[in-house]
Every structure is written in C-alpha cells, then in structure tokens.
Design a protein that fits this description.
Blueprint (H helix, E strand, L loop, with lengths): L2 E7 L15 H16 L4 H6 L2 E2 L2 E8 L8 E10 L4 E9 L5 E9 L2 E2 L11 H7 L5
Antiparallel strand pairs: 1-4, 2-7, 3-6, 4-5, 5-6
Family: Belongs to the 4-hydroxybenzoyl-CoA thioesterase family.
Keywords: Hydrolase
GO molecular function, one term: fatty acyl-CoA hydrolase activity
Length: 136
C-alpha cells in the first residue's frame, strides 16, 4: 500500500475562539495529504488531467475523535487502499507529540473522462502503470 504523511503546525487562522480547529479545516488537511500521496507515484492532479482524466470526490467521511488546537503539531497520513475501480484513501490525523488519534477519514474518487465527462467504471491503465501493479 502506498502511504504518505505530512506534519502541520496548526495555524491561528484555522482555529475558533476556543483555539480549536474549525471542523471544515480537517478536509483541507486531508486534501494536502492526498496530494502528497499522489505525488509519491507521480499521479498528482496535473498528471491526471494531462492523461485525460479528472477525479472528483464522490464520497468523503470524517470521524472527529478529539480536537486539534492552535500551535499543535499534527501528522496527517494518507493511505491508498483501493485503486482498481476508484481511488479510495484512508486518513489519520494524530498529535505528533502524544500520537493521540484526532480524526479518521475516508475519501473516494472516480475517474471521469475529461473530454466526454463520462464516469469510468475501472481506473485507467495509467494508474496501474504508475503504481507498478499488473492490470488484469
């Protein structure tokens, strides 16, 4: 499985009056980790588009376990768990210092032909090629 992590120092502009990260910013954090993961196998968003595909998010689920706070160092980890018919990624956001789990998430993206806007029911061959796995 492909995996990538990044560390974020929670900025002041991401928190509310209680110095807790506003819930919507977690989506931004997992998007940053997703892009980091896609770059590990050279299939980031510009590469997708250059190969004639766009990959919209069709499902996104978050489970807030504990709050991230201003100045906290958090590790956001993205793991690719499915790629044959869609790109499914699992995420964890943890406190760097304590390793406490703060948030879990899952996202699902499907391939869409950029030209026709038709959804593909199988990931394009380039995904298998980039991942170095056989395509049946």
């Amino acid at each position: 499985m492909k995996q990538a992590s990044l560390i974020i120092d929670v900025p002041f502009f991401d928190v509310d009056a209680m110095h807790v990260v506003w819930h919507g910013h977690y989506i931004k954090y997992i998007e940053m980790a997703r892009s980091e993961l896609l770059r590990t196998f050279n299939y980031d968003y510009p590469d997708m588009e250059a190969n004639g595909h766009i990959w919209p998010i069709v499902d996104l689920r978050l489970k807030y376990v504990a709050s991230a706070t201003y100045g906290q160092h958090i590790r956001v980890t993205a793991t690719l768990v499915e790629w044959e018919h869609r790109l499914k990624m699992n995420y964890e956001i943890r406190c760097v210092e304590s390793n406490e789990l703060l948030t879990k998430a899952t996202s699902v993206q499907v391939a869409v032909c950029k030209e026709t806007r038709e959804m593909l029911f199988e990931s394009p061959g380039i995904v298998f090629e980039k991942l170095g796995v056989e395509h049946s």
